[in-house]
Amino acid sequence: MVWFRSFIHVSSSIGSSSIKHRYLNKSPPNYFLSISLSQHFSTESTFHKTPSPDDNPYSGLCRATKPSEKPRMVVLGSGWAGCRIMKDIDTTIYDVVCVSPRNHMVFTPLLASTCVGTLEFRSIAEPVASIQPAISREPGSFFLPAHCKVLDTDNHQVHCETVTDDEKTLKPWNFTISYDKLVIAAGAEASTFGIHGVTEHAIFLREVHHAQAIRRKLLLNLMLSDVPGLSEEEKRRLLHCVVVGGGPTGVEFSGELSDFILKDVHLRYAHVKDYIHVTLIEANEILSSFDDRLRHYATKQLTKSGVRLVRGVVKDVQLQKIILNDGTEVPYGLLVWSTGVGPSALTRSLQFPKSPGGRIGVDEWLRIPSVQDVFAIGDCCGFLESTGKPVLPALAQVAERQGKYLGNLLNKIGKGGGGHANRAREMELGPPFVYTHLGSMATVGSFKALVDLRQSKEAKGLSLTGFVSWFIWRSAYLTRPYLKQNLRIVGSFLRMVGMS
Amino acid sequence: MVWFRSFIHVSSSIGSSSIKHRYLNKSPPNYFLSISLSQHFSTESTFHKTPSPDDNPYSGLCRATKPSEKPRMVVLGSGWAGCRIMKDIDTTIYDVVCVSPRNHMVFTPLLASTCVGTLEFRSIAEPVASIQPAISREPGSFFLPAHCKVLDTDNHQVHCETVTDDEKTLKPWNFTISYDKLVIAAGAEASTFGIHGVTEHAIFLREVHHAQAIRRKLLLNLMLSDVPGLSEEEKRRLLHCVVVGGGPTGVEFSGELSDFILKDVHLRYAHVKDYIHVTLIEANEILSSFDDRLRHYATKQLTKSGVRLVRGVVKDVQLQKIILNDGTEVPYGLLVWSTGVGPSALTRSLQFPKSPGGRIGVDEWLRIPSVQDVFAIGDCCGFLESTGKPVLPALAQVAERQGKYLGNLLNKIGKGGGGHANRAREMELGPPFVYTHLGSMATVGSFKALVDLRQSKEAKGLSLTGFVSWFIWRSAYLTRPYLKQNLRIVGSFLRMVGMS
Question: One GO CC term of this entry (chains A, B) (predicted)?
């Protein structure tokens, strides 16, 4: 109770306005900070105590590092690219600050499997702090749950806004970080092609919370379809799962879904097993990046397991139905949207020269040429036309390879004494980033997958189907270096194969 | 594509209005149903097909069972009481229909452990359909995700409204079920004592989604407290976890929380370990139902592990602070409210004679005496004063014992041919329900718990503390008959004891 009395005792000392005043005086001239503070302290901040002399909220991340200190690498994002560079970066050279709305990396290729419970959500998410332990250990390394709002490359600063996790009681709060090296790995966002109603009514499949929403909605619809008084039509609508987009994600999700229906639904929801259907809508060929033979195999397997493949272009998405270009109405109970990705709001807002497709333009060393110490990797970047190189596909494979390359490059720069801001101008960077496509993989349900090992779409090369390729597909992920949850996955894997 | 063309083909046949019309004509005169349908079909229902002759939405659950059919037992709720009776009921005698907003039973005594990741959410939730498999197997047995709104005991019917899982795209929908036997096991709701702001700002600890919200908020606050520019005061506020209510739940949660701080926070959030604190606020003694010695032991253990025990009465709850009766302000980042339970909205709405405390009044056989074929068990019921028996405490132990008793009673009635509505008037029911208190248990952190084996508060009897009692505490749950997830729990258990 001593502690309690003491903090009650001081609760009469200083009012929040005076605190705000004090901090504003101390703060560097920065419109962003003043906004943030006024906004911040306007919420009832009531935990008052006499401020200690060292109580200076603007020490640390907001000011540039001294030559005597470790240079600070700021990473925007925690996807494949961002997590790979954080894993590889030498934390004896750099302090690492990760700014991302998500404190974990999502193991996207396995996301579809979590929607129907084949894998558990925990199994495919890895905390940033365990990918790079320095983040919770080193005094100068942090993870900050925030979005980057404004880049100030002249002053080597990023202005960020905290996430609120949809908490009504929490106001977002802006803050600033100075960087020596900035790595933009903020990814892309699901593209809706400006089709009306997609964001309101469809669920994407890019984050764990998407998979959770899909699972919740699927189960709720299954339960609701038992409710007495429900018409046949309504029952069929509720249990009609529509997937738009025939890329790997859409195909894999359709496969998982039809497996789920054939196994679990027939077992646990016997009442409605004849009402539930899966439809996959694609404007062109499904899996267009794959070899013809594989495409036909996938088509055969999906159709065999009850997935309806529909060639069509979505014109409008409404509350309970999709309208196709030819006017056809497709009623749905669950709508999953996976038609690829496009530039995110941050990418669009940046004033740097862009690559074809509107991504952040980078040179062969993944630098943004027009500014110092800023790099971009993963889905958010693309080679500038001046490099004469094609924009790479938005694949985990590409993102991770870029993260690995840039990690080594920055380690080399750091060792060479170029870690601090503007210290790497004259440095020799060595070989540029070169991407070799190792092939594509996709699963079309348990024990069935496609492995396309051709180096490019035109080139000849090995392509596998069936159990072997499915095994390769799973193995490729079970052997990830930093997927701590492997055991859990192996567990689910064995359960799936019926070995446990 | 054949299927697709066919359902497109018919999509021009019947308009939803005419469907509505058709069904309304078929429906029995019931304001509830008409409301439900108009409400329901007013949403764009577009999956049209020529109705098959047997397409009658009001066959089945809405009409009373024929003497040739199995009698229908409707259970409202899926907690300890409801799940126990569903497990024990003889499904060769009865069809079982469970109406509950929750399709799983929550293993409440272990809920506190899931907030900090000691146990996983899945480990403490068991689907109703696996507790009573007939629900997914038998043609006449169902689980329906809904709330009971109105009881019509004259016609042996319940009027229900479906849950929408907060889906904006889903409108709740009303329907009716006829019952032969009705078991009200709808539980109680967290009591706020009418204190302003509790429901807006505090989190209860009664459902899995509560535990998820607590975990999410705790982690978010931990991450946010690293954000640069945050004042010392604000940091302390964000990381101040306040628990109101010193009953077993409040005490167990405080214990888990302090363990989490001592272990995980010191390891993973080293930056803020000195800022995070737990305060437990209770108006009287903590664990008042326990033996003095146990209470003192709990107090000592909690204080030792850093929990601040505060004697106080909450007057008002605001966005970021609590006001106590004596005017003291307690700022908080996380507020958990566990001050016991009171009658739910449904219980309050029912016009039956109530027991002291406003619960549904039952006789010694757990019947509602004023009506036929309606029973109440668990936290929602209490003995009528006329029985001369005291109202039993709202404990899992009581609820489960009542479920077991009533299960046997209804099986006996069913075997005796009294299963259908109004057929058990003259039957001999045998011995009434008698409750013997087997003792109370609570944990105060890893390896520390209290076991109070006295038969009543006054009586002498065995009382244990420390590891042994903690082991008993865990074992009591690890050996649950129908907790399929035991393996997972044992896993977590072994991890906790450091044996795996």
Answer: mitochondrial inner membrane
